[in-house]
Design brief:
single chain; alpha/beta; Spore Coat Polysaccharide Biosynthesis Protein SpsA, Chain A; 10 strands; Glycosyltransferase_2; membrane
Length: about 325
């Protein structure tokens, strides 16, 4: 692997790897992750920085990060003023502070093996702009992994562009790709944005491990919210399905009405329809209308986020970032 590149002014410099680690309440993992990443990078011919982004942890993670940053200037820390979540604004904001020729994104829970990083960098040196880990299995449980598989199949079926399945935990982006991601809509998750951008992606398969320590902050409601948001931002198919289903139901209702009319006219005294079909039909149509209103509401909420000028991620503190290394406009 070659560790030398040319900067914009024509000077040679050692290629730099930026590793970003989002964390929330990872007091049991963050120290070990810093040690593991430092050990891996010291064995490679590259300059590097390790950037931890803390989403307002409450378990002492921030204090540990301050300690780590005080001992090693290559460990840098961004402390968010509140929990902005792993994806979206927080991820884009972190990317703006990275100074490397390539960015590696890895979670702090050790479910995705940091030992894959040298292989990711080797693929990048071979010319791949994007390298992603793809889970072939998971020790987090067959039920959860099965639900994830169903989710990806559904997104694949509904999405306007082909999507990659079971990627999320560990990813590598060339700096060019990173800059494009920063300019993109933060409502679109990075894994779905890749498919839309069209870069050639190298997939490295692995089995996801169990968490090394602690518990995931994601619960069923957050997973459901993520699934619905992913569907809305990657596809307009649900809106088309509403239109098609509305036409079909209208045709069926009209046909049933004609049949009832004919039966009533031909068997006026013997045909007793009763109120049950009316009530069943009314409740069924009412539930369908509520479903359609919910789907429309999800799309309207996306529009609302677009037109509402929310502030960027607010940092309560940043550690080991000098005055030169600010946002990406200066890099």
């Amino acid at each position: 692997m070659g560790g030398v590149a040319w900067n914009r002014k024509g000077y040679r410099h050692m290629k730099k790897i930026s590793i970003t680690v989002p964390c929330y309440n990872e007091a049991g993992n963050v120290r070990k992750m810093a040690e593991t990443l430092t050990s891996i990078m010291k064995g490679l011919p590259y300059d590097y920085e390790i950037v931890f982004t803390d989403n307002c942890s409450t378990d002492g993670t921030r204090e540990i990060l301050r300690e780590l940053a005080g001992k090693d200037s290559r460990i840098k820390v961004l402390l968010n003023s509140r929990n902005y979540g792993v994806d979206g604004r927080s991820a884009r904001n972190t990317s703006q502070y990275l100074s490397g020729d390539v960015m590696i994104w890895i979670a702090c829970d050790f479910q995705d093996p940091p030992e894959l990083i040298p292989e990711f960098i080797r693929c990048w040196e071979e010319g791949y702009m994007v390298v992603c880990g793809q889970k072939t299995g998971s020790r987090e449980g067959k039920i959860k992994y099965g639900c994830r598989s169903i989710f990806y199949k559904l997104i694949q079926m509904l999405s306007d562009v082909p999507q990659y399945e079971h990627i999320s935990g560990i990813m590598l982006y060339d700096r060019k790709v990173m800059l494009e991601c920063i300019k993109a809509d933060y409502d679109i998750n990075l894994r779905f944005l890749l498919a839309d951008m069209g870069y050639k992606v190298k997939l490295i398969q692995y089995e996801q491990r169990e968490r090394k320590s602690g518990r995931s902050s994601y619960n069923i409601w957050r997973y459901l919210t993520f699934a619905i948001n992913s569907m809305v931002v990657t596809s307009s198919a649900p809106l088309r399905m509403m239109t098609v289903l509305g036409i079909i139901m209208s045709a069926i209702s009209f046909l049933i009405g004609i049949i009832y009319l004919v039966l009533k006219l031909t068997s006026w005294h013997n045909f007793q329809a009763g109120t049950a079909p009316v009530l069943i039909g009314m409740f069924f149509l009412g539930s369908v209308q509520l479903l359609f209103m919910g789907i429309l509401g999800e799309y309207v909420s996306v529009i609302l986020r677009k037109v509402t000028k929310r502030p960027d991620v607010i940092l309560s503190d940043k550690l080991n970032f000098d005055d030169i290394q600010e946002k990406v406009s200066n890099l």
